[in-house]
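I trust your eye. Have a critical look at both lines of this record:
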Amino acid sequence: MRSVFLFREMPDFIRLKPHPANAAYRQWFYTHWGKENCIVSGIGRDAEYMPLQQRLSVKLARGGRERYYIDGRSIAVDDDCFLILNENRTYASRFESNVDIESFSIFFRPGMAEEIQGALGTPVERALVAGAGDAERPVEFAEILQPHDAIVSPVLRYLRYAVRSGVDDGDWYEEQFQFLLERMLAHHRKATVQMQKLPALKTATQREISRRLALAVDLVHASYDKGIGLAEMAAAACLSKFHFLRLFTELHGITPHAYLQRKRALAAHRLLDSTSLGMSQVARRAGFNSRSTMERQLRRWPAPAN
């Protein structure tokens, strides 16, 4: 029977710090952590987790922003997106202040990604003879914020529902983790095809363009409620405004300004649904310069179905 290391509350970040008084908790935690499939699902506020080397993982957050710090980047995950972080990545995380945030993270057991990728590359005829597929080097997923989609997000939502419903069956979670990895690989292939449409001859140049554009997306998700615009986004991507506008639109299918306004509209929809704030207050909280601008953008970008 497969096991799953299942947390229905956030790990105690105080007791995880190296200290003699924390020895028993740390020993129990690290007996499982990084060795088994793992799900961490809980509510946190003002928590901060020290840099650690982690397994391949997927991150969700609801109700606010959970920030991950990796390679000098601050990546804010919230209700509108998910984030994949690769095997053996070292990163820290911190919850947005003064807000109760639901954090949901999935960590894959060692070797699972290689198993799924190898099986997907093995024809059925060969699998009937040889059994398991050939192990391959794990794919390097793009470590950028991904808007919720029809490929990966439904499995993430299903797993979150199962955790909240009390499901503890390790074998069932093993199956769902396999489905999720298959979807993640399909999403990765789709993103790679989109990246290859960027106007550059070399794959390395396309990857560098994609990486720089991701820095602008990081800025939008971290600071949409502030007065940012094309100049700030282009500066974050280390590109001229002309090249940034052209390349961003090519990759995302909408202009940077439209992307920013869509993000603000999604935030405004949530505030209107979850608070008693008036329209003008919501507009300010979501980063719009006026109530009328917000109302136009709310009509343009309706609230997504849950």
